[in-house]
Structure formats: C-alpha cells, structure tokens
Backbone:
C-alpha cells in the first residue's frame, strides 16, 4: 500500500485543498533462497516473521545483520549472490518503513542495482529484480521528490512488463505497478498522456484479476483512483461516477478485518466529496464525513496513514462548514489539520499541501471572526514554502500562488516574500519541462498574472529594483528557457579542465534538447525527459564552481540595469491591483510613474485596437485609430514622457519599451495627442521594444569585430502555395540586391520557386543578415505554427527555433503580423519576430498588423541606405534610425496613416511614425 496525492480543486482564486487517495503496488519478493548460512540458530526469515507478529525491532535488526553475514559468505561470482543482495535490500527497506532512516532506503536501492547487474537478460529472476528496484526508487521519490528516481522507476517497470507477456503470472503485477508510477508522474508534471496510459494499463490489469482473485480489490481501487485523477483534470462526470462505483466494489471485498479497509473507506469518501463539489448533494458530503471517520478509527496513533486520514476528514468538515456555516465543523477541521501537519515531516513532497490545507482553514476562520492571530498563523505556515528541501512540484507552485494572492489582497507583510517564493518555484518548474511547444500550455497556466502582480506588489512596497527583477523572472518564460540552451560559455571554457569538460557536456545536451524541440511521441518524450534531467544536473555542477554560483539563475537588478546604458528602458505593467511604469536608468534607481488606468480599461482598449486592426485597408479607420492613440497618450505615455524629461532624457534620444500583459498588444510607440502644435511620441523620442531586459543586454554583448564577414540573404516569396500573389516582392528584392550586393561579403537571393521551405531554412543557417518579403501567417490558436509563406508551404516558428544560427545580426521581416502573438498570453511574446530575436538576432524589424505590398517596397531603399555606416559596412545598431529616416521621407506621400506606424523595432534599434491622409484602401496586404 502506498500514499497517493491528488491535485486540489480550485475554489475561486485560491488553491484548493488536497484530498489524498491510496493505490496499491504489488511487489513479488525474491526469497527463494531464504535459508541463509549463518552462525545464528535463527534464520533471518523466521526472525522477520516474529517481528511481523510481535513488532520487536530487535528481531528485525538481527535479521538484517544475518543477511549481511550471508552476503559476506557469497562473494562476487557466487551463484546465489544476487539473492542475498536482493534479500538484504528487502529487509533494509522494511527497516526504513519502520524508522524512516533514509540511509536504509538508499542502501537498499544500491543493493538492488547490484542484484540487477547479476541478473542479465535471460535470467529467470530479472523481471522481479526490475520490479522491486522500480518500487524502491518510487519510495525514494516519494520521500525526496527527485524526478530522476521516478523516471527510472517507470523505465524499469516498462522493462519488467516486457518480460511478462500474455499468460505470464506476473503480468497483472507489472501492468499495475507501471500504471501507478505513471500516475505519480502525471501528478507532478500534468502530462495527460501519462494518465491516459495509466488508465489503460489498470483496465488491462483488472481483466487479469477476475472475481475471486486475491488482488482484485487492489485493481478496482487503482483504476478508480486513476479515473478520479482524470475527472479532476478534465471534469468528465462519467469518470467520477465510474470511480465511485469501483471504490464501492473494492470496499465490499475489504471487510472490517481487511488490512486495506481504511484505504477503501478513504478513497470512496474522497470520491463522494468530489461529487459533492460538483453537484452540491449534501448526502454525498455527509456520507463522505462518516466514511472518513471510519477510516480514521482504523488509523490509530502510530499508523503510517494517520496523517492522511486526519487531513481528509478535516477537508470534508471544512466543506460542510462552507455549506452550512457551523463553526464547530471549522474548529474541528483546524484541529485535525494541525494534528496532520505534525505527522508530515520536513522534506516530504506532500508537506506544502498539508500546510495549505491548514492555512486555508485558518483563512476561513479569519474571515468569519477577524482574529489577526489566524491571519498571521496562516501566512507563517505559507512562509515555510520558501525553505522547501525537495524539488518543487506543481502543487508547491499553486500553493505559493495562493499565498501571494491572499497576502497581497490583505496587504499582509509577507506578500512580497510570497511572490518571490512563487517565482522561484516557477523557475524550478519550467526547468523541469522539456523545450517543446507541447509544454507551452503548462507554462501559460503556471505563469498567468504572477509576474505582473509581483511587479505591482513590489512597487506598492517601494521595492522598485525588486519589481524589475521579479517581472523579468516571470516574463517571456518560454523564450528565456529556450535561450538557456544557447548561453555563451567563454568564461566557463577557460576556467580549468573541469570547466572545459562541463562546457562541452552542456553544449552537447543543449544541442540535443534544441534538436528535440517539437517531439511528441511517447518514446521521444521519454528521451527528452532524460535529456532534461541530465542537462539540469550539468547546470547544478557548473553552479558549484567558483564564480559560477548564479549560472542561469534569474538576473539581479545590477545585471539588468546594463540594458539602460544606451537609453532608458520603460517597463509598463498592468495588474489587477494597479497599473504602473518604471523607468530604468543606467546610473540611478528606477523612477516610478503611477498610471491612471485600470487593468480592465487596458484590456478593453487592447480589444478595441485589435478589432480595428482587422479592418485596416478595408475601411477608413483613421478617426478610430487616432482616438485610440490619443487615449494611450493621455492615460499612459504622456506621464512617462514628463518623467523622462525630468530625468534629463533629451529629445531624439532612444527609449526601449518593455510592456507587460495587455500593454504588449498596444502601439505605445505611436501614441500622441494628434492636435496642431502638439507633438506625438515619435517626434520626441525614438522607440524600440524589448520582451525582457536581458535580451537587450545580451544583444549588446554580441558585438561582431569590424572585420567579420557579412553574409546577407534576401528571401522573397510573391507566389506562395495557395496564397495571394504579391506584385512588389520582386522589385523590392531587386532594390535590396542592387544596394547591398556590392557592400556585403556575400549576397544570396532566393525568390519564388527558389524560396522553398528547405532552401530558406538552409539559408537562415548560413547568413547573419536577413531580408524576408512574403506573407506572414499568424496562428493565434497555435502560436508556434505561425509562419512565413514559402513557395511550397509554411516556414513555422517551430522550424526557426531549430535553426543553427551563425552569429545572426539583423532581420527585416516585411510580412504581416510578425509581432502579433497569442492574445491570451501576451507576456510570452510568441510571434515571428520574437522567434527571430530569441534565436539570436540582435536587431529585428517587424509589423504589428497587415503591411501594404507597395508600402514595403517604398520603405526598403531608404532604409538600407541609412543602415550602412561611414566605413561602408552594415551596422545593425543603426537599424532604428535607418527606419526612422526611411519613413520620414514618406511623410508627405499618400500612404495610409496606419501604414506609417505598422513597423516596430525589437531590441537594439528603433521605429517611428509620421502624419498624412489615408487613400487607396485597395492595396494588397502581406
């Protein structure tokens, strides 16, 4: 029997309680040669039998020592050595279960590994060795939460199942145990394929355990628990109803004298509690409470499952309090939660759940009675999360987020610590996820508004440098994780032989992980998980070296402030609590500007603007657009400009916008009063955008030597497969070729039938400078499939990410919607321009909406004239000014107003805007 934890059910904005259910493992013990040679008149099995009857630990200790003596008499090469190793491991594990001394469990795991080596493929006992080693690794995972133990357990169970084909007497055992380890991993990582596979395996095991089979009740229980897990994840009521009926059937097979009756009572009670929460039928809740009381009666003091029973009865009483408001139910729940927490040792992976359950009960009582002692005790319990000794789980992160929301709402002093803890746990969780867009939904759900609320809390507490650090840590999380794989290792490579070896290992694993991006089959997922574990281990070893203790850890403000060396960086933040801006300057603390707008108003403004962009080119939208830009100016940008002037940021200076939340979807660069004798932002400062401060710091560090070769590729696709023709692409590429071919080291031109996906992909890998003219195809539902339209199909973000870039410098993306990502997760910046920038390009120009084909051609010539420096070389640091000057030449033309503000610059340069009247609305869009 083994402990199982389920994710909590959310109530409102808080993290819900954790109801524990149990599952049964099957462990075929290898005691075929238990009569060990010994000097004692007792054999170890007889001593163990007496221990099991009377509980005298000295009998168990003596049996362990007899097994040690037996092992000494069976040295390497002895035909029975594997059995002695196996049996000593078994008894040590029993000793661990009695006393909880981790060294006993660690030794048993090592002994089982040694035994397995002596049972190679073909050995009749190999299957049982694989199974037992897997079970012990799983035990250790439950104690320490180290994912590598659980992953190893799963792979060993798979190997054991392979050796138990149809008809094998241990097949149901192997099916059951593999299924339960997969359930454990699902509870840690939330990957549905693990849970679906577990359910299938449990169904197969149940078929092999018909009525009358000794293990049928275990299979009924385990299948019920896995269906309950899936209900909590997917909300399918049939799963929950089936789970309840299976638990009832299992309970009938476990009468009052059965050793697992308390398990079945608990599990049936928990499932009825789940159904009550869905349907509100009080009889389900009352039955749940009585079943939990019966289960607790069977778990007296000293019982290993007493903590779980105390916790679950408390939760059901708390549910009844929430329904009926009877304070005695809540008071009893708090007492039970206290008793449960006392039995949950430090370092246990379930400790955060137990902390959360007690804290939630105290919070309910605080709201009822207003006792400050309950509030402070709840926050004190939560604060223990900042000292977790095990690897952070998704439950740990959810509890920390619940703490942050609760403390911040009440303006409690622990709020800032809560956000710092939650973001630290987020960082650990993201590090455990493979670099695949299949994991993006997990990241999006985990991040939510965490970073923006943390920023707001820091600002309200006057911790402005902390605000910058925290928003950076929780912003563009997916890209930041991916960027870790291309971290420069120059300093590590010259730090000695150990550093050289670790750098080589880091590069190899990073390359393999990036190469595995977008792998989705189960076999590939297993490989990616193993690579991730190895990569994380290398990072840990690098941090142990002198001067590398912060390797790949979130940057400190002193590092981020370097982003402002070329001009101020303005972080604009929208939170449910308030909206603020911070101006990060290179030589002083950040400057705070309160913004007189609510997050709801920002969201409404963003929705209005996004709807308007869909009408550009079809209707006269200038008046509506100007109205939005004026609102942005008066509400957001004008106060920031005033603060910049006070900070002596002179007109025509460069500024970098780092917007969060819905601000990331607004054209801040184009804000203005748009009235006579009043300037717009573009007439005062030259704007660029950055997703994070670290990206700008990184871009500035990648300065190429003056003598480095400049390889330029111009890719144009005016006749894409299934798309509308673009008539101006060919003359546009001709202009680029004429101007740059004499300047650069090499110039490659791919056009129409030559601009195929494979050819474009190859060209991206061999050139540092890119001009791309084609249709841009955003995919807001599946942002990693946003693409550039080539002759034979789409060149997607997920393809671009895998490119083997050679010191890329600059990309001009003359296509539609290249800086537009998923509106549901604007903080993550999943769009085409971001893919280019996070792939290494120091400077990128893209578009916020549709680009007119003719406008693109007109902009190109003037732009590249100004990108060439006085020595006749291309200089990507001139990109912002080059675009500004190119657009300024078109000020008095008939180009539609929205086309003068469509281009934006990301990272190390700029973009601008000018005035004019809209005409010719039938232009072809890219």
Residues:
């Amino acid at each position: 029997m083994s402990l199982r934890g389920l994710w909590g059910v959310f109530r409102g904005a808080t993290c819900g309680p954790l109801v524990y259910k149990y599952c049964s493992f099957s462990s075929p013990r290898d005691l075929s040669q238990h009569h060990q040679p010994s000097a004692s008149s007792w054999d170890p099995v007889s001593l163990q039998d007496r221990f099991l009857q009377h509980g005298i630990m000295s009998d168990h200790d003596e049996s362990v020592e007899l097994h040690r003596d037996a092992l000494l008499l069976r040295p390497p090469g002895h035909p029975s050595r594997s059995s002695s190793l196996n049996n000593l491991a078994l008894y040590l594990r029993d000793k661990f279960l009695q006393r909880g001394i981790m060294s006993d469990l660690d030794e048993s795991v090592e002994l089982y590994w040694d035994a397995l080596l002596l049972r190679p493929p073909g050995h009749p006992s190999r299957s049982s060795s694989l199974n037992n080693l897997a079970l012990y690794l799983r035990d250790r995972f439950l104690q320490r939460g180290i994912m590598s133990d659980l992953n190893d357990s799963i792979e060993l169970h798979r190997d054991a199942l392979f050796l138990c084909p149809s008809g094998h007497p241990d097949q149901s055992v192997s099916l059951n145990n593999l299924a339960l380890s997969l359930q454990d991993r699902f509870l840690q990582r939330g990957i549905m394929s693990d849970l679906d596979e577990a359910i299938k395996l449990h169904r197969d095991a149940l078929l092999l355990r018909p009525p009358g089979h000794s293990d049928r009740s275990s299979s009924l229980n385990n299948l019920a628990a896995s269906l309950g897990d899936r209900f909590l994840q997917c909300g399918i009521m049939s799963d929950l109803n089936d789970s309840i009926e299976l638990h009832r059937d299992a309970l009938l097979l476990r009468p009052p004298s059965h050793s697992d009756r308390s398990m079945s009572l608990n599990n049936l009670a928990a499932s009825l509690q789940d159904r009550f929460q869905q349907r509100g039928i009080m009889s389900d809740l009352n039955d749940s409470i009585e079943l939990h009381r019966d289960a607790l009666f069977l778990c007296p003091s000293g019982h290993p499952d007493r903590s779980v029973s105390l916790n679950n009865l408390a939760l059901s009483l708390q549910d009844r309090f929430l329904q009926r408001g009877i304070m005695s139910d809540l008071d009893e729940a708090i007492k039970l939660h206290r008793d449960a927490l006392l039995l949950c040792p430090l370092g246990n992976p379930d400790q955060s759940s137990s902390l959360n359950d007690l804290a939630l009960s105290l919070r309910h009582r605080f709201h009822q009675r207003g006792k400050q002692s309950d509030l402070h005790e709840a926050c004190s319990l939560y604060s223990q999360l900042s000292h977790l000794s095990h690897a952070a789980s998704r439950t740990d992160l959810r509890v920390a987020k619940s703490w942050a929301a609760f403390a911040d709402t009440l303006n409690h002093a622990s709020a800032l610590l809560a956000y710092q803890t939650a973001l630290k746990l987020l960082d650990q969780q993201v590090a455990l996820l493979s670099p695949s867009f299949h994991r993006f939904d997990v990241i999006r759900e985990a991040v939510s508004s965490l970073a923006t609320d943390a920023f707001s809390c820091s600002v309200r507490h006057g911790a402005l440098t902390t605000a910058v650090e925290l928003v950076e840590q929780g912003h563009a999380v997916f890209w930041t994780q991916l960027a870790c794989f291309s971290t420069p290792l120059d300093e590590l490579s010259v730090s000695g032989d150990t550093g050289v070896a670790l750098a080589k290992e880091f590069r190899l694993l990073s390359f393999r992980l990036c190469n595995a991006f977008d792998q989705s089959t189960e076999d590939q997922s297993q490989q990616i998980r193993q690579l991730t574990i190895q990569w994380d281990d290398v990072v840990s070893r690098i941090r142990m070296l002198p001067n590398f203790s912060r390797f790949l850890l979130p940057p400190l403000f002193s590092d981020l402030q370097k982003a402002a060396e070329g001009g101020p960086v303005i972080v604009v933040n929208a939170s449910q609590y308030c909206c603020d801006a911070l101006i990060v300057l290179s030589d002083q603390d950040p400057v705070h500007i309160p913004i007189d707008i609510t997050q709801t108003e920002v969201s409404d403004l963003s929705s209005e603007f996004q709807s308007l962009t869909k009408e550009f080119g079809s209707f006269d939208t200038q008046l509506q657009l100007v109205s939005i830009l004026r609102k942005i100016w008066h509400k957001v940008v004008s106060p920031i400009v005033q603060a910049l002037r006070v900070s002596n940021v002179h007109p025509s200076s460069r500024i970098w916008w780092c917007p969060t939340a819905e601000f990331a979807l607004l054209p801040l660069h184009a804000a203005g009063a748009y009235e006579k004798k009043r300037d717009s932002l573009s007439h005062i400062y030259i704007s660029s955008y950055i997703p994070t401060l670290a990206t700008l710091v990184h871009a500035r560090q990648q300065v190429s030597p003056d003598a480095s070769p400049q390889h330029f590729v111009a890719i144009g696709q005016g006749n894409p497969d299934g798309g509308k023709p673009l008539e101006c692409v060919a003359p546009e590429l001709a202009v680029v070729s004429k101007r740059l071919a004499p300047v650069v080291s090499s110039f490659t031109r791919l056009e129409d039938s030559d601009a195929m996906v494979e050819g474009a992909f190859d060209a991206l890998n061999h050139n540092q400078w890119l001009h791309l003219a084609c249709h841009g195809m955003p995919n807001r539902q599946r942002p990693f499939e946003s693409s550039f339209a080539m002759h034979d199909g789409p060149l997607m973000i997920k393809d671009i990410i895998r490119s083997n870039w050679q010191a890329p410098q600059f990309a001009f993306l003359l296509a539609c919607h290249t800086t537009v990502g998923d509106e549901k997760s604007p903080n993550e910046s999943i769009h085409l321009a971001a893919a280019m920038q996070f792939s290494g390009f120091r400077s990128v120009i893209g578009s916020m909406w549709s680009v007119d084909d003719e406008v693109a051609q007109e902009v190109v010539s003037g732009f590249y004239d100004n990108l060439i420096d006085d020595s006749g070389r291309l200089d990507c640091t001139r990109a912002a000014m080059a675009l500004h000057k190119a657009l300024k030449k078109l000020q008095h033309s008939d180009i539609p107003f929205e086309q003068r503000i469509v281009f934006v610059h990301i990272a190390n340069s700029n973009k601008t805007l000018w005035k004019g009247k809209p005409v010719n609305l039938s232009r072809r869009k890219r």
Summary: Residues 622-646 form the longest helix (25 residues). The CA atoms of residues 457 and 463 lie 9 Å apart.
